[in-house]
Structure formats: C-alpha cells, structure tokens
Amino acid sequence: MMLKVFRLAGAVGLLSLASVTSLAATGCSKSYIPNTDVEDTSENRKVIAFCEDYRHAVEDKDVGRLLKMASPRYFEDGGNTNPEDDVDFDGLKDFLTSTFVKTQSIRYEIRYRRVSSDETKKVFIEYSYSASFRIPGLKGEEWKHTVADNRLELIPEGDSFKILAGM
C-alpha cells in the first residue's frame, strides 16, 4: 500500500512539475494571430484585417474596391532595373480594368508571414500565396495556378491604409 502511495505521489509530483514547466514556457512565448505567423497585437490585427479585405476584393474581382485601396502614389518596379515593366497607379488601373476583369473563378489564399514597419511609417506585409483562376485562352478557358511569396507595402491613411506596392 505504501509503495502505491509513493508511486502516486511521485506521479503527481511529476505532473505538477510538468504543469509548472509548461506554464513557464507558454507564459513567456508570443501569441500569434490565428492561421498566421504574425504576432498578435492590435496594430497587426488591423493590418491583417486590411489585407484580408484586399484578398476578398481580389477574389470578388472588385476593381473599384481594389482601386480605392491603392494609393495614388502606387508604384511597382517589377523587382528589376528594367523600367518597361514598372507599374504606377494609372498602369494598375489599366491592368485591373482590361486584363484582370477577364479572369474568372479566382481563389486567393494567403499565409501571412511577417508584418514590419520602418521610420517612414510604411508597413510591410510578407506573405505566401496560392492563387487559382481561369483565364480566356486560345483553346477556351485555361486554369492557372501559382504559389509564390510576395510583399505588400502600405502607408497609413486615416483609420486604414493605402497600398503603395505589391498588388
């Protein structure tokens, strides 16, 4: 009987030690916004909510909402030194109203990886995305699928943001 009590006491002690260790480890850890790798802060939640609105606007092909989300200073350099593939706000508007509107059945999934900012108050959102969509092709509709990493650049405006680059 005594042996059973000691075993039970030992087991309870180990469970208590495990519980305290677990609490200490989780007490010091960061919490993350669900389904992201982004630390859960009120500012980060606001940024992710804006990005989710952007994602839904893409899926809905809502050109008007996408243009409202873009800054008049929007500029995309294509990630290279060739100025021929640069896109400013007018180029973005032309793309959205001519090419993008022909896209059908858009599914756009995003995994947010990191939110950061700089001294100019720009906000950078690094994310991975999976996009599936149909486009008109030579042989009828063609399904396209792409998986890649991207970065949105935002600037605060009032209670929200405007997109400077990354669309």
UniProtKB/TrEMBL annotation:
<keyword id="KW-0732">Signal</keyword>
<protein>
    <recommendedName>
        <fullName>Lipoprotein</fullName>
    </recommendedName>
</protein>
<feature type="signal peptide">
    <location>
        <begin position="1"/>
        <end position="24"/>
    </location>
</feature>
